[in-house]
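Journal club prep — side note

Before the paper discussion, L.F. wants everyone to see what a predicted structure for a comparable chain looks like in C-alpha cell form. Sequence:
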Amino acid sequence: MTRMTIRQLLPLLAFTFAFVCLAMGSAQAFSRYNDGCPTCHGAFTDGTSPQETLFPNDNKHTMHRSNQYMATNCNLCHTADDENNPFIGSSDGTIDNPGLGCMGCHGRSADAGHDSISSGLGAGLRQHHNNSGVTACLGCHIDASPANYTPVGEDVFPTYYGTVDTAVDFPCNHVPTADQNENWSDDTDYIGLDNDGNLIYDAVDVTCVPEPSGTLLTLVGVTFLGAIGRRRAR
C-alpha cells in the first residue's frame, strides 16, 4: 500500500471538510416550524406567543385554516405525513398554487435569487428578524442583512395572496379593521406583516398604496365615460 502525499490528500480533506460543514449547516437550519420558531412565537396550536400577539380561538392553526378566518387550503402549508410540523419552504400545494409552505405568505417570489443557500423568498422575513435583534438567520443567509440585499417593497404580493386558496388578499392594511387584508389576529393595532423587513408596517410604509375600493373604481369609471360622452358631443 503506497503512502499518499500531502498534495494527494488535499482534495480528500477539502471534500471531507465541506461535507461536515454542510451537515452541520443542515442540522442548524430552520427547515420546519418546530426547528426553532416556537422559541419566540410559541407552539403553532397555541393562541398566544412570547411576542404578545393574540390569535382568534386561542389557536394559530385555527386562524390559518378556519373558513371563519383566513380559510387557507391545508395543502398550501402542509406536506403529507409532516406530523403537523410544516416545512417552511415547501408543501404539497394545490392545482392553483405551488407548494411553497410558509414562504407562500411570509415571503415574496420577487425576492428570489439573492441568497446563497435558499431560494431567497424569505429575505424580508429574515431582515425583519435581523433588524429586530434576532440575528440567527445571518449566520447562514446573506440576504438577512440589509447591507447585502434590499427586499422589494411592502406592497409586493406574496405568491398566495389574492388566490382562491386563502382569504388573505392584500399586503397593506390601510383600514384599522380585523379579519381582512393580512390582519387576522385579535390584536388592536390592526397591522399585518412587515413584508420587506424594515420594521415599518403597512400604510406607514412609503411603498404601500391604497387598495382600490369599489367607490374609487366607480368614480373613475363615471369620469371616463363622461369624458367620452363630451368628446362625442363635440
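L.F.'s comment for the group: The two ends are 101 Å apart (CA to CA). Keep this in mind when we get to the figures.
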